[in-house]
Amino acid sequence: MCVHITGDALTINSRAVSANIVVKVPRHTRIIVDGSVIRGRIGDTEGDVTLKTDAFMAFQCGKVAGVAIEVGSDGDALFDIMEMNGPLAVKVGGGAPCCVTVHGGKITSLAKKAGKGTFIDTNGANIK
C-alpha cells in the first residue's frame, strides 16, 4: 500500500487485502484512490475525488467537488455521493456493472463512457 501527499493531493494506491486508513486532510484537498480498495468513505473535503479500480469497489463520499470514476472491465462498483459541486466523469470498461448515485449539489458537466451495466442516478442534484 502507498499513501502519497504531493502538493494539495492525497493519493492512496492499494493492492492490499485488508487495510484501514484514516487520514485528515485540509478542506479542498484532492483525493485519489487507485487500486483494489474494497470499501471506503471520504468525508466533507469539498475537493476533487478520483476513484480507480479493476476490482469490486463500494465508496461513499460526503460533500466533494468534481468526481472522476474509472472502473476496469473486471470491476463491479457502487458509488454513493451525498453532495457534489463540479463535473462528474464515469468511465467503465467492458460490461462491468456500476451504479453512481448523487444525492444533491450541482453537477456542472456529465461525461459517461460506459456500457449498459452502468446506472447514474442524479437524484436531487442539479445538472447544468
User: Biggest β-sheet: count, sense, barrel?
Assistant: 12 strands, mixed
- Shape assignment: globular
Radius of gyration over C-alpha positions, nearest whole angstrom: 14 Å
The overall number of domains is 1
Strand percentage lies at: over 45%
Unreliably modeled segments: none
Q: What class, by secondary structure content?
A: mainly beta
Q: What pattern of helices and strands is seen along the backbone?
A: EEEEEEEEEEEE
Helix % is under 10%
Let me know the average pLDDT: 82
Strand element count: 12
Number of helices: 0
Structure description:
With 128 residues, the chain is an all-beta fold. It has one domain (2-18, 25-127). The chain is built from no helices and twelve strands. It has strands spanning 2-6, 9-14, 30-35, 39-42, 49-53, 56-64, 67-71, 76-92, 98-102, 105-113, 118-121, 126-127. Strands 1, 2, 3, 4, 5, 6, 7, 8, 9, 10, 11 and 12 form a twelve-stranded mixed beta sheet that branches. Strand 1 (2-6) and strand 2 form a beta hairpin. The radius of gyration is 14 Å and the shape is globular. The N and C termini lie far apart (38 Å). The mean pLDDT is 82.
